[in-house]
């Protein structure tokens, strides 16, 4: 249900087979170890080369502070948070809500956004702002953890674009998000 917006927004995220992006305590070793075992970067570099802006929630930003070097050097980084001190990290801009974020991105002339973090992805999905989703699923069941998906206010129709099987049983699938006017229920010929 992607609505009209001046930029494209893509999700590129790793999950357990049961749909978690991190353990409850934020641990993602179960993901990084299997990603490494699969070999290569699983398409990440090609993906991020095509985007100009990373949008993430505080829950993703805070662990990323430990990365050395900072992995988003040539990107604009916008963080969604109601609690983070704005202005303490010159590498990022902090936005208190989605409306302010969208205004900021639009004013900057943003063209392509990488949306990261479970809550933030769901915020974008609810607003109809996601255009493409790539999920890299690693073969492990965690049973519990921080979910990728949850309530999003209605069905989001997807179109399968590709699936690639990497080593170590890592399976990566990409889906396009159908825009409202393309929904079969919205008057296209042959709709039932
Ligand atoms: N598996 C992967 O590929 C992958 C990728 C990215 C992250 N992760 C992991 O996932 C975990 C973080 O995920 P998460 O589900 O906690 O989500 P998140 O979106 O990274 O962070 C959630 C926080 O973002 C802020 N936020 C989100 N939506 C907002 C909105 N509409 N308005 C204002 N603020 C908003 C809130 O911060 P405040 O509480 O400050 O308001 C919220 O607590 C981390 O452990 C990270 O390492 C894994």
TrEMBL record:
Gene3D superfamilies: Dihydrofolate Reductase, subunit A. InterPro entries: DHFR-like_dom_sf, RibDG_C, Riboflavin_Biosynth_HTPR. One of its GO terms (biological process) is riboflavin biosynthetic process. Residues 12-171 form the Bacterial bifunctional deaminase-reductase C-terminal domain. It comes from the Bacteria. GO terms for molecular function: 5-amino-6-(5-phosphoribosylamino)uracil reductase activity. PANTHER family: 2,5-DIAMINO-6-RIBOSYLAMINO-4(3H)-PYRIMIDINONE 5'-PHOSPHATE REDUCTASE (PTHR38011:SF11), DIHYDROFOLATE REDUCTASE FAMILY PROTEIN (AFU_ORTHOLOGUE AFUA_8G06820) (PTHR38011). This is Dihydrofolate reductase. The lineage of its organism: Bacteria, Bacillati, Actinomycetota, Actinomycetes, Streptosporangiales.
């Amino acid at each position: 249900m992607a609505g009209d917006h001046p930029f494209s927004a893509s999700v590129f995220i790793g999950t357990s087979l049961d749909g978690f992006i991190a353990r409850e305590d934020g641990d993602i070793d179960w993901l990084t170890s299997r990603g490494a075992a699969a070999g290569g970067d699983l398409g990440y570099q090609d993906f991020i080369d095509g985007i100009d802006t990373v949008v993430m929630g505080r829950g993703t930003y805070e662990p990323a502070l430990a990365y050395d070097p900072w992995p988003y050097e040539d990107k604009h980084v916008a963080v969604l948070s109601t609690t983070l001190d704005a202005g303490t990290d010159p590498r990022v801009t902090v936005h208190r809500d989605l409306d302010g974020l969208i205004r900021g991105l639009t004013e900057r002339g943003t063209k392509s956004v990488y949306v990261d973090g479970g809550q933030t992805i769901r915020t974008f999905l609810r607003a109809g702002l996601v255009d493409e989703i790539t999920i890299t699923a690693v073969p492990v069941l965690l049973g519990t953890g921080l979910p990728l998906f949850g309530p999003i206010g209605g069905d989001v129709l997807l179109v399968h674009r590709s699936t690639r099987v990497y080593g170590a049983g890592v399976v990566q699938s990409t889906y396009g998000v159908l825009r409202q006017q393309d929904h079969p229920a919205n008057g296209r010929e042959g709709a039932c």
